[in-house]
Amino acid sequence: MKEYKFHGWENATIQDSNGLTPRDYYDLLSDIWSTDTCTPRLKKQWNSNNRTLGQCSITAFLMQDIFGGKVYGIRRSGGNYHCFNVVGNCVFDLTSEQFGNEILNWDICQEQFREVHFAREEKRQRYLLLKSELANKIKW
Q: Is 89 among the domain residues?
């Protein structure tokens, strides 16, 4: 089995209606994440060696569209939240590797809502771009 670096990859075996798992979506998104989908405050730091940088909320809400469940956020310095997914007993964070060796606490987190995140039009547009690119790649 291929090893991944994102949090929860070992148990990310849930499947969508096409039989795809979060691991499959990580592979697909790895070719899509870019400066165009990166949060504006991190665009200058984004590079192909850290593709998940600045991609968390739009990725987590896209995974929620596909798998259901809830999106939670780890409060970061500066008041921002790092978002990840919880679907039943499956907890996965496709963009956690952006933090390198930093240890995050996935236990004490607040539920996140797309209405709040997408109130920022630039974030909603980045989400729509990511969703569109993914749809083109897998021919939804």
A: yes
Q: Which two tokens stand for residue 4?
A: 């991944």
Per-residue pLDDT at 140: 63
CA distances from 26 to 31, 53, 66 (A): 9, 13, 13
- Find, among 89, 90, 63, 80, the residue nearest to 7 by Cα: 90
- How many Cβ atoms sit within 10 Å of the Cβ of residue 59? 26
Which range of residues forms the domain containing residue 66? 9-138
76 within a domain of the structure (yes/no): yes
> Rounded to two decimals, what is the model's pTM?
0.95
| Whether residue 43 has pLDDT greater than 80 | yes
Locate tokens 């670096």: which residue?
5
Total of domains in the chain: 1
What is the Cα–Cα distance from 61 to 58, expressed in whole angstroms? Answer: 5
Distance in angstroms (rounded) separating the CA atoms of residues 79 and 19: 37
Cβ 6 vs Cβ 106: under 8 Å: no
